[in-house]
Design a protein that fits this description.
Layout: H1 5-10, H2 17-24, H3 39-47, H4 52-67, H5 73-102, H6 116-139, H7 146-153, H8 158-176, H9 180-190, H10 193-197, H11 200-205, H12 214-238, H13 243-250, H14 261-271, H15 274-294
Helix pairs in contact: 3-4, 3-15, 4-15, 5-6, 5-14, 5-15, 6-8, 6-12, 7-12, 8-13, 8-14, 8-15, 9-12
Length: about 300
């Protein structure tokens, strides 16, 4: 456990690149997400409670739940943080690839960095997997409960829904195009265990992924993505999302060009950590709601 939960929530930034980007995505799910920061403030907003004594009790119970290692909250946080860190690493690797493409004397970088489409495919599928694994940890259910998770997606709201919105827009549409669900589905079928083992997040998360070996774990990654692809397809079509309208709305908050979407994707990978940011908010909300129910 790196920091106590109240400190993690207190330290959430009120305004930075991540927050700006998430605010830009409000056009997809208007009013669903607010940048909830501060532990005491989170308790007040989630519970609508004004009694200071009760707020204190709720906070203490939430902290106790988080500190209990038999619960899955700390593991869920680790998953959120791990995949966020991997996104930044992917951005750095992809940027190296772009430099290699455009500056001849750095061409050797092409041999050192993963192909962007494959790397982005792995990152996207691992983010979907992370969402499943964290959901299972938070709710105390087995890590292979794909059906329960897919059903839960239908009732996602606030920070959890914003996280999935960002996943679809920033890790799907912008870098991989409007047909990203189909293309990723095909690409996943071509991945090998060695492809996955070259990804630091996969190696770090291996113990959480159901399966007896790398091949079966890779199979579970693909099964998870395929199970969620229907929800993502409905989400994209239901909100009429395209790479162009996502970037257009981002331009209101972030100074980016829309003529090179692969560069935009690299830039966002390297400058945002939306998974960890909204993940901490999801954990805090879950802890507060459970604490209220138990008091």
């Amino acid at each position: 456990m790196s920091k106590p939960i109240f400190k993690l929530v207190d330290e959430l930034p009120k305004n930075n690149m991540t927050v700006n980007v998430l605010n830009a995505l409000d056009f997809v799910i208007p009013g669903q997400w607010q940048n909830l920061t501060g532990f005491e403030n989170t308790i007040k907003v989630v519970t609508q409670e004004t009694d200071e004594t009760l707020i204190q009790q709720i906070g203490e119970r939430a902290i106790t739940l988080y500190n209990d290692k038999s619960q899955g909250y700390q593991k869920a946080l680790w998953l959120y943080q791990t995949i966020s860190g991997a996104g930044k690493a992917l951005g750095a690797a992809a940027l190296g690839n772009k430099i290699g493409e455009n500056v001849s004397f750095l061409g050797f970088l092409n041999n050192l960095t993963p192909k962007p489409e494959k790397a982005q495919t792995i990152d996207l599928t691992l983010k979907v997997l992370t969402e499943l694994l964290a959901y299972c940890q938070i709710n105390g259910i087995p890590g292979d409960s794909i059906g329960d998770f897919v059903m839960a997606l239908g009732s996602y709201g606030s920070d959890s829904l914003m996280r999935m919105t960002a996943l679809v827009c920033l890790d799907g549409l912008i870098p991989l195009g409007p047909n990203f669900i189909e293309s990723v589905g095909k690409q996943v079928g071509l991945l090998t265990p060695s492809d996955m083992n070259s990804n630091p997040a996969f190696k770090q998360m291996q113990d959480f992924i159901p399966g007896n070996n790398d091949e079966s774990k890779l199979g579970f990654v693909g099964e998870t993505f395929n199970s969620v692809s229907g929800w993502m397809t409905g989400f994209v079509s239901g909100h009429s999302l395209t790479p162009q309208n996502v970037v257009k709305n981002l331009q209101g908050f972030v100074d980016i060009a829309d003529d090179k979407l692969d560069y935009v994707a690299v830039f966002l990978d390297m400058t945002t950590n939306y998974y960890e940011h909204t993940g901490v908010q999801t954990l805090a909300r879950s802890l507060v709601e459970r604490a209220v129910a138990e008091i």
